[in-house]
Amino acid sequence: MQEIKEKYFEGERALYGLSNTILKNVTFGEGESPLKETKDLEIKAAIFKYKYPLWYSNNINITDTTFETMSRSGIWYTNNISIKNSNLQAPKLFRRCKNITLDHVFFSDAEETMWTCEDITIKNTEINGDYFGKDSSNIYMDHVTLENCILNQTPLAFEKCSNINATINSKITSIKNPISGIIKAKKIETVIIDPSKVDPKATKIISIEPVDREVSVSDQNQEGE
Asked: Taking the complete model, does pTM exceed 0.70, yes or no?
């Protein structure tokens, strides 16, 4: 792998199509799409200052990096990406991506973030913003904390989430197969538990108003789920 370090880049598509490279202590200033259509990159201690840094990229490992506010719409159509120990300040950072791993990441403005993505693992991460995870699937989440949140029209919430500590000030359409923790909500319409996949006793579910319906695995099979 070649290495690029301690450099400052400006201009549109500054390193377009780059591959098999370590980027260390680099800054991408004003200029759109600096790393579009790249692959096999290790990005360490970098700063992204402007729009669309990673589009149509593959096999990207990022550590100790900052995506500043204007790096919005930053990671789209990108597969196999890992981000650790990083600060993500911009909105709309993930769209139509696959195989995402986040560990010790801080989202200061996750508005319209992680939309229509697949196969996501999130650990030790703080997320602030509206509509995170819209239309995404196969998300793993550990140590999930939600305080005084509203989940509007949210079906199958908390699936595969562990160590949950959630207080929800709204109705939840349905909860499905949480792994462990506590979930408290104003109203829960449906609770779906498959004892072959999770321990029903490991999660405490509290609905201030009575739960409308509890569904067992046998009921799900009859309904074709």
From this structure: yes
Q: Are 36 and 52 in contact (CB under 8 A)?
A: yes
Rounded CA gap, 26 and 83, in Å? 16
* Euclidean distance between CA atoms 67 and 48, whole angstroms: 5
Q: pLDDT by residue (tens digit) across 178-215?
A: 999 999 999 999 999 999 999 999 999 999 888 877 77
Q: How far apart are CA 140 and CA 124, in angstroms?
A: 12
The residues, ordered by sequence, that sit 6+ positions from 16 with a Cβ below 8 Å of its Cβ are: 33, 34, 35, 36, 37, 38
The whole-angstrom separation of Cα 107 and Cα 88 is: 5
Tell me the HSE value of 153 on the side-chain side, using a 13 A CA sphere. 3
Which residue spans within 64-117 are E strands per DSSP? 66-67, 75-76, 79-88, 94-95, 98-107
- Other beta carbons less than 10 A from residue 105's beta carbon: 21
